[in-house]
Design a protein that fits this description.
single chain; alpha/beta; Rossmann fold; 2 domains; elongated
């Protein structure tokens, strides 16, 4: 996918590289799906490259990426076999400790190395505290790029030691052009729904289409408008999401539900605004908890449906 909306981050990054002293820690912030990780890898490759030193096209020995590992040995085997696998919920302290051991050696090819943590806001508390020590006293030639979708979850002391690169959301015309280019087979209605649901995130828009989230969107909108007095629509919603949805699909459903309520808020009675705001706030809370809490998927889907039903214009029909 051709990444869009990165002009300003690249400008800031390259101006810093051209300066006398490059800051040692960077915080890449913005919504999920804006391509922050892809930027981090490309920026890291620019950072470690040196004239007349061959740079490998694949994995780079001086770029170390810390992210979610497979959940257990069984999932590790699935990964090795090229099959879909489940991830651990957090980046553990053991991963930070292992990275810190590497920092006791010199970079392999040149004078610089880059450490990418994605997403840094999913580090365990102990991992965050361990990382802080490296940020306070970084080894010479070591640079950190922390990708964060929810930077407020990071320790304030970590945030204060980083220079922030903010990634803006993408405007609708650019999103439409991107979707037309990447998924030309998508219909006009699907593209419109994807743009509305993604709220400026190209990754979310593409996931909407490739993940066949159109049926979810239709059911959610019906619940929000009609209510669900007999729980039939909530049952359809659970069926559309699937019996064992992975975290990515649950995340997409939460994002979509927030977008549905956001669309309702644009054309509602003034007296409906407090209810819509409350439901949206609760969905935001669930979205923040979903990556780390061990929710029962079925109950979470019903909660999403109930929050949507609570916003229906006729409260007695919503049965929320």
């Amino acid at each position: 996918m051709n990444l869009i909306g990165h002009e300003q981050p690249w400008r800031e990054w390259r101006e810093a590289m051209a300066g006398e002293r490059m800051h040692h820690a960077w915080l890449l912030t913005g919504k999920r799906g804006l391509g922050k990780m892809q930027f981090a890898i490309a920026a890291a490759r620019e950072l470690v490259a040196e004239p007349d030193v061959h740079q490998p096209a694949g994995d780079h020995p001086d770029i170390h990426i810390l992210t979610h590992l497979p959940k257990d040995d069984k999932e590790e085997k699935k990964k090795a076999d090229g099959k879909p696998f489940e991830l651990k919920r957090n980046i553990a302290i053991a991963q930070i400790r292992s990275m810190q051991q590497r920092l006791n050696t010199r970079p392999t090819l040149g004078e610089r190395r880059a450490i990418i943590i994605d997403p840094a806001d999913d580090m365990e508390k102990s991992a965050s505290n361990a990382l802080l020590k490296s940020l306070e006293e970084p080894p010479r030639g070591t640079f950190f790029l922390l990708v964060a979708h929810r930077p407020a979850r990071l320790l304030p002391t970590i945030r204060s030691r980083c220079r922030t690169l903010r990634f803006p959301i993408v405007e609708d015309p650019e999103m439409r052009a991107l979707l037309s280019r990447e998924v030309p087979e998508a219909g006009h209605d699907a593209v419109d729904a994807a743009i509305a649901a993604a709220n400026g995130s190209p990754g979310a828009a593409l996931n909407f289409i490739t993940g066949n989230l159109g049926p979810l969107n239709t059911i959610m909108r019906r619940i929000a408008v009609e209510g669900d007095p007999d729980f039939m629509l909530r049952g359809q919603l659970a069926e559309a999401i699937g019996g064992r949805p992975d975290r990515a699909r649950i995340q997409a459903a939460l994002d979509l539900a927030r977008a549905v309520i956001g669309a309702r808020a644009q054309d509602c009675r003034p007296e409906d605004i407090p209810v819509l705001a409350d439901a949206h706030s609760q969905l935001v809370t669930l979205t923040g908890q979903a990556p780390t809490y061990n929710f029962d998927a079925g109950l979470l889907v019903m909660e999403i449906g109930t929050l949507l039903a609570s916003t229906a214009p006729s409260r007695d029909r919503a049965n929320a």
